[in-house]
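Agenda item 2: 5-O-phosphono-beta-D-ribofuranosylamine complex prediction
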Amino acid sequence: MSVQAKNIVILISGTGSNMAAIVRAAERGQWARRHHAQVAAVISNKADAAGLGFAKEHGIATVVVDHKAFDTREAFDTALAADIDRHQPSLVVLSGFMRILTPGFVAHYADRLINIHPSLLPAFTGLNTHQRAIDAGCRFAGCTVHRVTSELDHGEYLDQAVVPVLPNDTAATLAARVLTQEHLIYPRAVERLIAG
Ligand code: GRF
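Presented output:
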């Protein structure tokens, strides 16, 4: 790929199913040819993140930056940024990346950093979104792709999808229903940004 290629770097901590959805969309949609864009690297803070195997199988560079090896959040974020910046990314995609990022890190990637959150923001920032939606009696739940700012789960909303909450839902069944929508809207939002 040419030097002007728009590189996407994806950060994961676990399964990486959203990452896989983006990689598959890039392959199927020929983002390299149509947008001069590629998923250049997948970086995990956990060595045993299942998604690393998928990335390798798809010929994508993988890196592990173990947060436990660093004394402070700042030191971890500095090391993480060094690995990300090696790819000169146009877009950094948080995909189930379970670390709170420092304001310095977020500022460094201003306008290039996005996340997907499994709720209809601004409802239910933080963790356990599905159980909290059920407990609150919500009839609808969903997911939100948003730009990342230093305030957790805030930042401009780029896309949302809605699913019903069904009478016998558990957090697990609702999470699965929401995840199918995440896999549709996250690749779509990434493509819109890199194509624009
Ligand atoms: C997704 O529900 C995402 O919204 C949340 O963490 C989960 C990650 O799933 N931030 P995966 O690793 O992409 O499969």
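Discussion summary: Residues 14 and 62 are 13 Å apart (CA to CA).
Owner for follow-up: CH.
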